Amino acid sequence: MLSYRLLTVVLLTASFYPCEAQEYHLTRDLAGSNLYNVSEIDSNNGGNVHFISQSDADQKKMTFIDSAGRAIISVDNTTDGKGDTQFGRDTVYLISNDPIDFGSLVVFDAVHIPFGCSVWPGLFTQGTIWPEQGEIDIIENVNLESRNQYALHTAASSGTLPELDINTGCVVRDASNKSFGKGFADSGGGVFAMLWDASGISLWFFERSNIPSNIDTKPDPSSWPTPSAFYPAETCDPRTAFGPQFLTLYINICGQFAGAPALWPTSGCASEAAPTCADLVQDPANYNNAYWSINYLRVFESSSSSSSSSPSGTAPSNSASAGVNAPSATNTGTASGSSSGSSGSGAGQNSAALNVSPNLIYSILLFSCLTVLFWV
Ligand SMILES: *[C@@H]1O[C@H](CO)[C@@H](O)[C@H](O)[C@H]1NC(C)=O
Ligand SMILES: *[C@@H]1O[C@H](CO)[C@@H](O)[C@H](O)[C@H]1NC(C)=O
Ligand SMILES: *[C@@H]1O[C@H](CO)[C@@H](O)[C@H](O)[C@H]1NC(C)=O
Question: What range does the record give for the signal peptide (predicted)?
Fold first, then answer.
């Protein structure tokens, strides 16, 4: 009798809380040539780069679709900057025309992420107003690192003291040493996924040999293993801490992360490559691995979330770009495309860039969401 009652309770509970997976459907496919349906932004985050227009990048073969159908996005590795201590390499800053909204699942499949001493790639999402509308870092690390780092940047607790150590706060390191850098490339790359829903924000990395089936067409996060990083809604409300998010992908060189004086000496680059990050920039041979090779970048929405109003918003106001975004803040200190990431003046020169480029000013970042689950 007792067990019968229990069974009834279980059945009732099951009927109130159906366990079947949410169905996700593709809403945006930024693969192949679609990946270039984006606009550039003029901000170098204190790095030794110069973001050129998409058409220039196409012309210079810095962005193209290769024979395997993959989107290649790279850094100039032919120009010799010898003698120019402020030299900045050409590359692109890509930002989506439209934002994604709460309820979205982003899936990114690549075989190569830019790496090497002084190299700092990023795949992230950002709101129009930063940091009030938040930023979600899906792929980001620097130099010779082999493990990816996930992070959230929000203004939810704007009373928090500036976070000086970029390896703390909301940053979570993937456990896999194939999630970034040479290890990622040598093992055929893999797939990253980011789910932004009522439970919070979840980020996964799957090695090539371990990718869930149908992830590219009918992804089912409920069947996936524990995420690499999970920021629960209880400590960071995913509906209020984040506005509509614009997908952003770029490559930087040196700057506040790759070239950070606090990081460089222990990066392996100081002994292997050069005493300072800036020493490497002039030599194009250092950038042969500074490229993305992308199978696809897809956005899915669940059936329930898709019934809500569609995402709206304008591209980050900081985006000074041609194309859809109105030209705005020009980056006075960096008009030449160069600035010294290792010098103290770099940050001052880039004050316009700071507004614009959420991703980098780690030294003035306000981290909220202090409760993070580390699975490492
Ligand atoms: C690409 O850009 C065009 C023109 O701005 C726009 O109409 C179209 O919706 C965009 N497509 C995607 C997938 O963003
Ligand atoms: C990567 O991790 C695996 C298993 O965790 C370990 O056996 C291997 O030595 C690591 N490789 C490097 C280059 O650290
Ligand atoms: C630039 O890098 C690409 C990608 O690794 C490589 O194929 C090319 O040969 C490099 N160019 C030069 C001049 O080394």
Answer: 1-21
